[in-house]
Amino acid sequence: MQDHDNLKEQRTAEEAHLEGAERQASRPVLSGSFPPQWREGVYQAILRRRDVRRFRPDPVPHAVLARVLNAAHHAPSVGFMQPWNFTLIANRVTREKVQDLYERERIAAAQFFDEPRRSQYLSFKLAGILDAPLNLCITCDSTKAGPVVLGRNSVPETDVYSTCCAVQNLWLAARAEGLGVGWVSILKLPQLRAILGMPPHVVPVAYLCLGYPEEFLEQPELARAGWRARQPLADIIYYEVWGEHNHPDWPALDRLARVASFTKGASMKRIIDVTRRIQPLDEAAMRLARERHDQLTKPQGSLGRLEELAIKVAGITGLARPRLPNKAVVVLAADHGVAVEGVSAYPQAVTAQMVQNFLGGGAAINVLARRAGARVIVADLGVATDLPSHPELVGKKIRAGTRNLAEGPAMTMQEALAAITAGIEIVEVEIDRGLDLVGTGDMGIGNTTASSAIVAAITGRPVVEVTGRGTGIDDQGWQHKVAVIERALHVNRPDPADPLDVLVKVGGYEIAGLVGVILGAAAQRIPIIIDGFISGAAALVATELCPSVRDYLIAAHNSVEQGHRIMLAHMDLVPLLNLNLRLGEGTGAVLAMGLVDDAVAVLDEMTTFGEAGVSQKAEAQQDATSLHT
Ligand SMILES: Cc1cc2nc3c(=O)[nH]c(=O)nc-3n(C[C@H](O)[C@H](O)[C@H](O)COP(=O)(O)O)c2cc1C
User: Fold this and answer.
1) What distance in angstroms lies between residue 192's CA and the mean position of ligand 1's atoms?
2) Segment 207-241, tens digit of pLDDT
3) Long-range contacts of the stretch 292-298 (C-beta < 8 A, 24+)
4) Nearest Cα to 136, choosing from 157, 163, 112, 107?
5) What is the pLDDT of residues 129-141, one digit of tens each?
6) Alpha carbon of 444 to those of 178, 343, 508: distances in Å?
7) How far apart are the CA of 183 and the centre of ligand 1, in A?
8) Residue 173 beta carbon below 6 angstroms from any ligand 1 atom
9) Ligand 1 centroid distance, CA of 516 (Å)
């Protein structure tokens, strides 16, 4: 009775919710796309569903159970035959029999693997038959709709396929309810049928364990254990014919999916909103800027890349004659757990000491920023020690340093999203204060190690090619650093197609924060000058997440770090300066600010041939160089 009342209450709540959503969507939800919250919920259930093997003993409320079974029963089926039945098994004695069956099969299957995989296989927990309060067997009865079923004649297995759809419906609904499901297929079916009293023609398609999980892991347990990684989406999609990964009529769909798969954690919505606001360059403003440049009192194109730069800034800002009076460099600081591996020539304490130096105005970045007329914004994203409070220090500490990426993921997905969001917030505050041009900067002992790992993971280039000497380690130190990065990639297996996964596993909090700065600035049409290697790693992640952000980036300089050229080439960016810099802090970015300022000043301030009364090439019949000779 109580369950019945619960169900009634639930029904009313669902109806109210449906009506609310229909109002919100201002059209009937039965047709068209779902309102954003619903749609997001579906993706969340799909992305966060996990196979669960560790359960808490709490019982599953009957109302919840009824809802997930009803979801299963709404699966598609061939000829609408609904071949499934759901057998619920709470009885401990029955479950013990199934557990024995499973255990025998589990051991027997070990013979199929060679060492060391055999030992690893045997170490896995592959079922929670007794821990879970409830088991459920979803069966397929091929005879249910008679001998001839609409649509089943050519492929008789379609009834089993349909039953799998019911399993998946249940699995997703259970995830939405916070309920864990674990599929146990390590069972001999005749014995299972005998235990459950099933007739021989019925196929036990899925034996499932149901209950509240100890936790929902962020990724499949088998992936976390290094057994098998998720394949890149690009490898899965074929265009038009089997095996064809590229086709002129098709864009690379895997790239478009990145923002969609980017749906984890509390800050996710904010980040998606920001990426959605990033627009292509303003073609009209660029055309006007180009036309004006061609009218200025100089041979066309004679100011080379300064001309291209000014036109790009016009496209970014949407202004045909942009000016950039308000400049800032955002310097994010954080520590790296990998520092314990001895990958840097300096001790970790230097990160905090340098933050103090930035705040005191005595570091290289302060001097160069003063000369460039840029304000220096210093933020703590994850410095290992507590910094004394300072009016100019922006406190956004995610954690006191990342975890050692050579031993496991550097951070959690929540932390990565929080750091990206912090970066967005920092740049948005600066935009409110007035910002026309932003530079990126970093401070973090150990952060070239994280950056090299990011470049290797995303570009697929060997670690030796993308690893430099950071703060100045010797040959032996460099070899050790390469080995540490190789270990990090081996242990974590970052998914090259998922930039957030790469960031989580081998990134840093300041790098994640800079991803946010880049996205946040691009969303508000502000040109972004990318400093060196660390900022470049952030730019790489940002462009992989949201390819249109690339057009907003200006690469400041060519760093001494050898992976830098590779990352810039990957983003198709050509740096402005080549000064053998390897300091970071944003120093290269502020040096390049002068050039960007010069580029837009030329476009804005120079007179045209018409204004100056100077003859143009065509009229004067002279070649371009003669103007200056
Ligand atoms: C048909 C099928 C049978 C499975 N059998 C088992 C099993 O016997 N034991 C187990 O631990 N997991 C089993 N799984 C779960 C998979 O290992 C799991 O789905 C996969 O590793 C991906 O992880 P995720 O479900 O957490 O995303 C099975 C999954 C499917 C679809």
Assistant:
1) 18
2) 999 999 999 998 899 988 889 888 878 889 999 99
3) 292/320, 292/321, 292/603, 292/608, 293/603, 295/608, 295/609, 295/610, 296/602, 296/603, 296/606, 296/607, 296/608, 296/609, 297/606, 297/607, 297/608, 297/609, 297/612, 297/614, 298/606, 298/627
4) 163
5) 999 999 999 999 9
6) 38, 12, 9
7) 6
8) no
9) 35
Q: Which residue has the tokens 């409320």?
A: 61
Q: Is the domain defined by 283-605 classed in CATH 3.40.50.10210?
A: yes
Q: Region 352-368: what's the mean pLDDT?
A: 97
d(CA 136, CA 211): 11
Give this complex's ipTM: 0.96
- In the numeric block, which tokens belong to residue 561? 């770090």
Q: Which amino acid type is present at position 362?
A: G
- Rounded Cα–Cα distance for residues 479 and 211 (Å): 49
Active site annotation includes 619: no
Q: Cβ contacts of residue 256 below 8 Å, gap of 6+?
A: none
CB 172 within 8 A of CB 71: yes
By DSSP bridging, strand 327-334 and strand 437-443 are parallel
Question: What does R_g of the chain's alpha carbons equal in angstroms?
Answer: 30
% the chain with pLDDT above 90:
78
Residue 218 near ligand 1, beta carbon < 6 Å: no
Residues 162-188, buried b or exposed e (16+ Cβ, 10 A)? bbebbbbbbbbbbbbbebbbbbbebbe
pLDDT at 545: 93
E strand or H helix at 205, and its extent?
Answer: strand 202-211
* Cα(197)–Cα(84) distance, integer angstroms: 16
What residue segments make up the domains of the chain, in order of their start?
Answer: 283-605
Question: Confidence band (pLDDT; 50, 70, 90) for 26?
Answer: very low
Catalytically annotated residue among 585, 605, 611, 619 = 585
Instruction: State the pLDDT at residue 292.
Output: 96
Nearest to 47 by CA among 259, 335, 315: 259
pLDDT of residue 621: 44
- Alpha-carbon gap, residue 592 to 234, rounded angstroms: 36
- Kindly report the number of other CB atoms within 10 A of residue 342's CB atom: 13
Establish how many alpha carbons lie within 13 A of residue 611's alpha carbon, considering only the half-sphere containing its beta carbon. 9
The pLDDT tens digits for 481-509 are: 999 999 999 999 999 999 999 999 999 99
Q: Is the CB of 106 under 6 A from ligand 1?
A: no
